[in-house]
Amino acid sequence: MNSFKKVASTRYSYLMRKLFFEVRRQQLRNTRQVSTTETVQETSNTNAIKIPKRIERGPTDILKALSNTVKRDYTAPHYKYHDDPFLIPTSNISKRMFALSQESGRKAAQWIRQEHADLFQHKVADPPIEVYFPRAVYDEKSEVDETVLQKVIEQHRVSDALTIYGLLEENSVELSRATKQSLLELLCYYNSQDPLEEEWIEERWFRQGNRSREKKKNVWKRGGVVENLFKNMSPPDAASYTALLCGRAQFGDVQGAYQIYQEALDAGIGLSADAFNALITGASVLKEGHELRWAFIEELLASMKQQGVSPNLSTLNAILETLSSMSSNKESQKRSLAVVAEFRAMGIEPSLASYYFLLNTFCQYKSSMRSAILVSILNLL
User: Fold this and answer.
1) What pLDDT score does 205 carry?
2) Quick one: DSSP state of residue 193?
3) pTM
4) Do 320 and 354 touch, CB atoms closer than 8 A?
5) How many whole angstroms separate alpha carbon 201 and alpha carbon 188?
6) Which of 353, 286, 366, 292 has the alpha carbon at shortest distance from 324?
7) How many helices (H) and strands (E) does the chain have?
8) Where are the PPR repeats (predicted)?
């Protein structure tokens, strides 16, 4: 009997412990499920997809970001030269020959494409890029109108514009005054010659050294299409006189520019500030002697005031450039500072070109005299 009770109590305690552990296990399981559910909810709340605001990007922003990861080697030659120690040019002459030869090869390829246009009819790009295709050739059999002429003028193709204009004149096609004015400005700006295309960077760069010498020569083409076109614009207005005057002054025919100025004054036509600026720049050619040049500049400024033409920054630079050519005269320095002060009073601040002409006026070449103008300019900048 006692043994039976002992076994029953043992059995009872075993069942109670088992029941306790089962209840405890179930409580822990429920607690874990609740915590897991809360964690999932919190994670889902924290990891919610948020679409950021759109940032404006340029077409080359990715390339700029990639280029910032690579540092530039300042000791390496220019990228246009071969990266080879035996082929890298060392002297300035060899660098010039190498760059121009490379560009000459591209010119030859472009000439072949133009001469054999029938062999290059494939589409290089889609949508098509007009620059990649051979240019249209205009001759006596071409059918042209004013729209074609306007398109050629916008593309700055001087020779084609002259050809089309000649065809329209032969066919007695009457052009609008606006088209004639645009053609006149194109011919005067480029002196009836095709400009050097922008893609020929090397040739344009090496030509800059000859600009100062060519600027002093009279290379204006007299008696050409420009003169006839100007006469056909009856009566010429201020824009026509200004275009012809600026063209002549730009290409060295300052005497002819001054003649156009006198004709405009006699006709009672007021010119723009660009025309006066061109004459002020050519004062060194028109007049001999410092005092005569300065008197001529004062005369032009008085004429501007009389006609109600407001001077601009180009007027200031033109005056300073002329005064810098008279730097041997002691009065040029005083007049330069007075001109700058007067233009500042009118609200026209000097530019870097203005300071350049001031330096030329005050700091003569191989002069032993020292000037504090450079320090003053640096303090202003």
Assistant:
1) 80
2) S
3) 0.70
4) yes
5) 23
6) 353
7) 18, 0
8) 237-271
